[in-house]
Specification:
Elements lengths: L1 H47 L2 H57 L1
Length: 108
């Protein structure tokens, strides 16, 4: 009976040591993960610290580009109107000149 109790105690002790060793490994792994996350957070913080100024500068640039686009779009519309008028004038003159040729040919 004493041998049985000693064997069971030894097995329980070995199981306890094994569990303690596994818990220690998990704790070490969690510590490494925490360190990695802290380094990543510091890097992200340092990288994003200048972001508000850069974002504001980019917004200003975007605003200028939008205004320039509006101006160019207005100019394009004006040019399209002018080209349309010129095309219509060209058609008108071509029709007029073809009519005058027809009339001059008939009169010969």
């Amino acid at each position: 009976m004493l041998v049985f109790v000693l064997v069971v105690n030894t097995l329980l002790s070995l199981l306890g040591f094994y569990l303690a060793w596994k818990i220690w490994q998990v704790g070490r792994t969690l510590g490494n993960v925490a360190d990695t996350v802290a380094r990543a957070e510091r890097s992200t913080h340092n990288g994003l610290r200048q972001s508000p100024g850069a974002i504001a500068l980019a917004e200003q640039g975007t605003g200028r580009l939008r205004e320039k686009y509006r101006q160019l779009n207005w100019q394009l519309q004006q040019l399209q109107k002018i080209v349309s008028v010129l095309r219509n004038l060209q058609k008108f003159w071509q029709q007029r000149s073809s009519r005058s040729r027809r009339y001059t040919r008939k009169s010969w």
